[in-house]
């Protein structure tokens, strides 16, 4: 081997040694920003860059995809032209681990997928780069990826948590956040060399001095007022796991008294496509009425808001469903600050005892439940699948808590309770797949053992408890045989509206007794029939007057009241047999009366409310029913234009649907007629009628006659709905036909659902068009087209 060869080998060995010494630069948990392109995946996945390796021969970016919702079988992909961007230079992907590029995939069973993306090496000294998932319209973009050490150097913006793990303060260029409030800067002195700062902040008349010390690997001493502590910078999208475990098990329980939750918030760096949404919405369930409620807070130009939310107890919330898509729970009497940052993807809660809210941000609730599908009748199979799901989900939550041992006990309880009650809701609905729309015995036992006895208090804690209670208790109560008999002849003073009616009814009662004796004394059936016919004929006027009373609103209300009393007593017995506590009994009885008032749209007789008060101890329940009852009592006493109520006297001789409809439409020749077939018992019908004023204003230019036909609607309830929603005007007509005539018209028009709308032309001809008055803009366009055609043919 000659000298030249030896030198060449030595040089090669030196070079190799040099390469061996050149270690990869690793960024652990780098900080990131999201870009300005927001695809669907942004809402359903959290994409976190967990590590970056800057090697001599390649760059590796490690990303974890975390499910953020329960959208069924949600899939995502990374494009084959994914690239890193440093300045204006692109570095296109070479390969990927644990994901096939250009192919849709799902997360694993634990809701995560860990992936590694390989790129060409980035220039030496790179301090920041962007991850761009191709150039498609809805591509993921993660911008500003840089080592966490770079973040430690900056104070504006920065977020800080205390040793307990709570987010306590944040500094931005134009404001600060502390104590759930926005603070303006009155004075801000920063030492550019050391990074120390003296900040004077104001909020209204309040003034606060903050002194920030030097950075020590992401920690700084910060004195807020007189309170000095060491705080750690928050660099992750979600608050890191708390340092110690909170072993509390309970939730605030007010005893279901009215209280308030305050939420201050900032929807930071909102994308343009969401800026047309001017409010921030909080949705939750009112367990008393079994109705959905919502509170909206106005957003200012910066995306800030303050919401005051009336609640009864600790409550699950669905927050800003069109934009932020958050599910969490709040406890009464508390104030929270919620940050939702679109640019950096940060999601934090601040406030007294907001640990659970932060844990739910980072490890969100699943929507995992099984519904019994149409046509499925195998309850044994359904029960087995439900039981399996609950066990699997319980194990998933336990595993999550084992992997993150400081997750609070309340987090474990709340997550499991939420899964349980979601399944309880769907299990309750399965009764509509059973015989006679009831649960079979094995399903009812399963519901009792696994849902009813395991409901967590307070009962407002999970949204789906109310739905389950409604289905389960209704199913159990319907199983009980219920016999009701009532002799109204013994209660004539309650039936009579005044002294004159009472005298008439007493005279009729005496006549009934005397007539019965005469009929019974007859020797044969033929003779008995003859006597009865003569007695009825001789007293026809009195009988007609009594029938009017017995078919009137007051009598029907009284009979309904007696029935309600009997039902309430029966229901209490059933609830006692199930071991229901007093609140459940109060809730069920009050909710029943509330719904009766709402369905009938008429006030209850005073004795119903008085009886309820003797059976229900919860004052909020009583107040809820009284408020609803007073509302309809006031409507009943309200005057209105009865000219819109049309008599059916001129239709008495007609029975065919076509002839009836033709006669009703006759006065409106020369106008378009919009027919609305509805009923006082029909909730969608009443919801549509509640927008009548808006409808009349929108369609005022089309010369429409509004014609309403009520299906099976009691007179008082019918009038009350018309008054309540102001379904009135010079071009409005209401008919409440006898049941046979209404049925004939509906049969003629082939109507099987309510509300149903039909449109007739100016000659009274039915138009073969799909019409829905609830879609005002669509109806307006249709009428405009018809109006233009009419003008053309004139």
TrEMBL record:
Pfam families: Thioredoxin_8. Gene3D superfamilies: Glutaredoxin. Keywords: Cytochrome c-type biogenesis, Disulfide bond, Redox-active center, Signal. One of its GO terms (cellular component) is cell envelope. Residues 1-20 form the signal peptide. GO terms for biological process: cytochrome complex assembly. Residues 645-788 form the Thioredoxin domain. Transmembrane segments: none annotated. InterPro entries: Thioredoxin-like_fold (IPR012336), Thioredoxin-like_sf (IPR036249), Thioredoxin_domain (IPR013766), Thioredoxin_ResA/DsbE_sf (IPR050553). It is found in: Cell envelope. Its main location: other. This is Thioredoxin-like. It comes from Prevotella communis. The lineage of its organism: Bacteria, Pseudomonadati, Bacteroidota, Bacteroidia, Bacteroidales.
């Amino acid at each position: 081997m000659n000298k030249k060869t030896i030198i060449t080998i030595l040089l090669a060995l030196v070079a190799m040694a040099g390469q061996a010494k050149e270690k990869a630069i690793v960024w652990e948990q780098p900080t990131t920003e999201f870009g300005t392109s927001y695809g669907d995946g942004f809402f359903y996945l959290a994409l976190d860059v967990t590590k970056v390796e800057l090697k001599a021969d390649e760059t590796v970016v490690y990303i974890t995809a975390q499910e953020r919702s329960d959208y069924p079988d949600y899939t995502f992909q990374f494009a084959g032209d994914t690239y890193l961007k440093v300045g204006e230079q692109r570095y296109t992907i070479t390969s990927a681990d644990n994901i096939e590029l250009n192919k849709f995939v799902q997360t694993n069973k634990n809701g995560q997928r860990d992936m590694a993306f390989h790129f060409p090496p980035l220039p030496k000294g790179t301090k920041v780069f962007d991850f761009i998932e191709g150039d498609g319209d809805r591509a993921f973009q993660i911008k500003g990826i840089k080592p966490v050490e770079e973040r430690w150097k900056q104070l504006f913006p920065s977020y800080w948590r205390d040793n307990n793990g709570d987010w306590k303060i944040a500094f931005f260029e134009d404001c600060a956040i502390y104590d759930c409030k926005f603070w303006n800067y009155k004075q801000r002195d920063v030492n550019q060399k050391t990074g120390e700062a003296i900040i004077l902040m104001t909020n209204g008349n309040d003034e606060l001095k903050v002194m920030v010390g030097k950075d020590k690997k992401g920690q700084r001493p910060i004195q807020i007022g007189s309170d000095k502590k060491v705080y750690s910078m928050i660099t992750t999208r979600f608050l890191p796991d708390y340092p110690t475990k909170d072993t509390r098990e309970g939730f605030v329980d007010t005893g279901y008294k009215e209280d308030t939750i305050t939420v201050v918030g900032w929807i930071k760096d909102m994308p343009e496509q969401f800026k047309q949404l001017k409010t921030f919405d909080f949705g939750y369930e009112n367990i008393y009425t079994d109705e959905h409620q919502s509170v909206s807070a106005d957003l200012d130009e910066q995306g800030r808001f303050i919401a005051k939310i009336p609640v009864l107890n600790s409550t699950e919330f669905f927050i800003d469903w069109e934009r932020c898509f958050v599910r969490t729970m709040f406890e009464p009497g508390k104030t929270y600050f919620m940050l939702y940052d679109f640019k950096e993807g940060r999601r934090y809660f601040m406030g007294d005892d907001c640990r659970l809210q932060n844990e739910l941000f980072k490890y969100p609730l699943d929507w995992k439940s099984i519904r019994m599908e149409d046509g499925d009748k195998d309850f044994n199979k359904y029960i087995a699948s439900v039981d399996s799901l609950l066990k699997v989900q319980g194990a998933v939550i336990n595993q999550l808590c084992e992997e993150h041992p400081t997750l609070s006990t309340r987090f474990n309880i709340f997550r499991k309770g939420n899964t349980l009650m979601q399944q309880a809701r769907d299990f309750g609905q399965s009764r509509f797949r059973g015989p006679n729309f009831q649960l079979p015995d094995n399903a009812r036992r399963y519901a009792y053992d696994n849902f009813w006895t395991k409901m967590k208090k307070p009962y407002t804690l999970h949204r789906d408890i109310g739905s389950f209670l409604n289905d389960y208790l209704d199913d159990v109560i319907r199983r009980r045989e219920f016999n009701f008999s009532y002799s109204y002849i013994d209660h004539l003073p309650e039936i009579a509206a005044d002294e004159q009616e009472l005298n008439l009814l007493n005279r009729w009662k005496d006549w009934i007794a005397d007539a019965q004796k005469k009929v019974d004394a007859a020797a044969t059936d033929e003779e008995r029939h003859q006597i009865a016919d003569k007695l009825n004929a001789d007293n026809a006027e009195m009988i007609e007057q009594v029938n009017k009373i017995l078919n009137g609103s007051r009598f029907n209300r009284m009979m309904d009241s007696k029935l309600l009393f009997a039902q309430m007593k029966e229901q209490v017995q059933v609830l006692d047999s199930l071991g229901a506590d007093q609140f459940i009994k109060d809730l069920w009885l009050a909710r029943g009366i509330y719904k009766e008032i709402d369905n009938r749209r008429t006030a209850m007789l005073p004795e119903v409310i008085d009886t309820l008060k003797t059976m229900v101890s919860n004052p909020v329940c009583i107040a809820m029913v009284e408020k609803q009852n007073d509302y309809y009592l006031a409507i009943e006493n309200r005057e209105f234009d009865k000219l819109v109520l049309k008599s059916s006297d001129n239709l008495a001789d007609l029975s065919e649907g076509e002839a009836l409809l033709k006669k009703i439409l006759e006065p409106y020749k020369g106008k378009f007629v919009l027919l609305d077939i509805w009923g006082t018992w029909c909730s969608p019908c009443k919801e549509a009628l509640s927008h009548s004023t808006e409808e009349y204003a929108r369609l005022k230019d089309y010369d429409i006659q509004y014609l309403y036909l009520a299906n099976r609607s009691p007179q008082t309830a019918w009038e009350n709905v018309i008054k309540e929603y102001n379904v009135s005007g010079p071009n409005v007509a209401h008919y409440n036909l006898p049941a046979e005539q209404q049925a004939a018209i509906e049969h003629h028009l082939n109507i099987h659902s309510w509300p149903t709308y039909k449109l007739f032309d100016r000659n009274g001809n039915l138009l073969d068009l799909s019409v829905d008055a609830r879609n005002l803009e669509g109806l307006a366009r249709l009428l405009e087209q018809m109006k233009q055609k009419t003008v053309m043919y004139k």
